[in-house]
């Protein structure tokens, strides 16, 4: 198996496990973590798609970096919202 095949399998496996967890989880924290795992799987697939004949294209790398920044912001907002909904104390 080549390294590219391993990346494809890992990305698809991460995305599939995250989708399964999103569908079966009842806890908000588990769903937020599943979204993070899903984004990592998609990022792996996007990075591999940008690699043509051993040369890496810069555009998919830029998209992945932008996605990571957006993911951090969305994760922070979702965690804050989940804590507020669950009735977390303000101490």
Automatic annotation (TrEMBL):
<feature type="transmembrane region" description="Helical">
    <location>
        <begin position="6"/>
        <end position="23"/>
    </location>
</feature>
<keyword id="KW-0812">Transmembrane</keyword>
<dbReference type="Pfam" id="PF00420">
    <property type="entry name" value="Oxidored_q2"/>
</dbReference>
<dbReference type="GO" id="GO:0016020">
    <property type="term" value="C:membrane"/>
</dbReference>
<dbReference type="InterPro" id="IPR039428">
    <property type="entry name" value="NUOK/Mnh_C1-like"/>
</dbReference>
<feature type="transmembrane region" description="Helical">
    <location>
        <begin position="62"/>
        <end position="82"/>
    </location>
</feature>
<feature type="transmembrane region" description="Helical">
    <location>
        <begin position="30"/>
        <end position="50"/>
    </location>
</feature>
<keyword id="KW-0472">Membrane</keyword>
<keyword id="KW-1133">Transmembrane helix</keyword>
<protein>
    <recommendedName>
        <fullName>Na+/H+ antiporter subunit C</fullName>
    </recommendedName>
</protein>
């Amino acid at each position: 198996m080549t390294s590219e095949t391993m990346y494809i399998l890992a990305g698809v496996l991460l995305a599939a496990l995250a989708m399964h967890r999103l569908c079966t989880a009842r806890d908000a924290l588990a769903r937020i973590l599943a979204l993070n795992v899903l984004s990592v799987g998609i990022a792996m697939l996007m990075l591999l798609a940008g690699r043509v004949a051993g040369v890496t294209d810069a555009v998919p790398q830029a998209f992945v970096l932008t996605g990571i920044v957006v993911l951090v912001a969305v994760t922070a907002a979702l965690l804050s919202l989940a804590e507020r909904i669950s009735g977390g104390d303000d101490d």
